[in-house]
Write a structure and sequence with these properties.
single chain; about 240 residues; Rossmann fold; six-stranded mixed sheet; about 35% helix
Length: about 240
């Protein structure tokens, strides 16, 4: 469902993603971990076709991310890092725009908006302008647009960022549920999330994968991923959060 082969990306002379190969299959919820600057967000943008790699290739649901961009857009639900914009649209208008851009219309679109709003607990802000939302509400609205067209692939960059503990737990449960029939790639700085919901953990450092395994093979005797993270990626200056 998500396939990368030798993906490489440079900004100037700096190699940000270095010959990275990865597969995420249907039914997998893959936690994508790493320090700030490790290459996580750039990799996710390459997989979604937002950026064009200088080397290697990527496919989503069998479609090349560069040559078949429309098919990829239909197959993917993308939550970008620190998503903003559309400040003059209400949440409902924003979701309607996103749905129409994906070919939804009429009752099908209305039902999709209702379903996505309900799944992320955002019904009460549907008439609120996007520009007036708090960070947590805005995050939920953008997550709703990723789920709107029920895509087979989800690429979510920090989906619980800005949410309170209750909503974090709700979104984690939602991701566990939808991953049963989708390929889901989720980046997070909260190691607890990977411990609780991931069926697989991929750890990246300096643009390269340094670990790719099921969580049970990476956690310590307390069931924590922190030891493996510190050993493989380092954390002296990283904002990685652990549960108390």
């Amino acid at each position: 469902m998500i396939e990368a082969l030798g993906l490489t990306m440079r900004f100037g002379r700096r190699t940000v993603v270095d010959r990275l190969s990865l597969q995420v299959r249907r039914g997998e919820l893959c936690a994508f971990l790493g320090r700030n600057g490790a290459g996580k967000t750039t990799t996710m943008r390459l997989l979604a076709g937002v950026l064009r790699a200088v080397g290697g290739s990527a496919r989503i649901n069998g479609h090349d991310v560069i040559a078949e961009r429309c098919a990829v857009a239909a197959s993917i639900g993308l939550l970008p890092e620190a998503a903003t914009g559309f400040s003059r649209l209400t949440v409902a208008e924003f979701l309607r725009f996103c749905g129409e851009s994906r070919g939804l219309a009429g009752r099908t679109l209305a039902a999709a908006i209702d379903r996505a709003s309900e799944r992320v607990h955002a019904r009460e802000v549907r008439d609120t302008l996007m520009g007036e939302l708090s960070k947590g509400w805005r995050q939920r609205a953008w997550l709703a647009q990723a789920l709107l067209h029920d895509p087979p692939v989800l690429i979510l960059d920090e989906p619980t960022d800005g949410l309170d503990p209750v909503e974090r737990r709700h979104i984690r449960a939602l991701l566990e549920s939808v991953s049963r029939d989708k390929a889901v790639l989720v980046s997070t700085h909260v190691l607890e999330e990977a411990e609780e919901i991931a069926t697989r953990v991929v750890l990246i450092a300096q643009g390269r994968i340094v670990a790719d395994d099921v969580p049970s093979n990476l956690v310590d005797e307390r069931g924590r991923l922190a030891s493996a993270f510190h050993r493989l990626a380092g954390d002296e200056q990283e904002n990685v959060r652990e549960r108390p």
